[in-house]
Write a structure and sequence with these properties.
The protein is globular. The longest helix is centred in the middle third of the chain and has 22 residues. Strands 1, 2, 3 and 4 form a four-stranded antiparallel sheet that branches. By secondary structure, the protein is α+β, with helices and mostly antiparallel strands. Helix 1 packs antiparallel against helix 2.
Length: about 130
């Protein structure tokens, strides 16, 4: 799930779909939908289905999930959207936290260290590590 302003959301959608089709083998269904819209923008869930004939469950994350998430995050940030909406970053999107927060990342990192000096709360989720 990502989010963006009305002037940006379609550009993200139009950039993500062809990249996934071109870069990920076995995609049989691809699209997106919005479920939370506001006066200034909306969210977008990307939906996809792929043929698992060529890999087992243990390979699915590295062969499909993470590459698809990478494309979605890269294109969302490139077009000025946000890689989160109301579900938060999570571990799969942690590599893009610095890009998501930009110059305010330092504040986030400082707060995280102040409230969690031992780094035990949600390790690797907000601050990649």
């Amino acid at each position: 799930e990502i989010s963006a302003g009305w002037s940006t959301i379609n550009a993200i959608y139009e950039a993500v779909l062809p990249r996934i089709r071109n870069e990920i083998r076995g995609i049989t269904l691809l699209g997106g939908h919005s479920s939370h819209s506001y006066i200034n923008g909306t969210n977008m869930y990307f939906n996809y289905f792929y043929d698992l004939v060529d890999c087992g469950p243990e390979e699915e994350v590295t062969k499909y999930y993470l590459p698809i998430i990478s494309i979605i995050c890269e294109e969302t940030l490139r077009h000025g959207g946000s890689i989160v909406h109301h579900h938060g970053i999570g571990k799969a999107r942690a590599p893009w936290v610095r890009d998501e927060y930009g110059s305010s990342y330092h504040i986030l990192e400082t707060l995280k260290r102040a409230f969690d000096p031992d780094g035990i709360m949600n390790r690797g989720t907000i601050i990649p590590g």
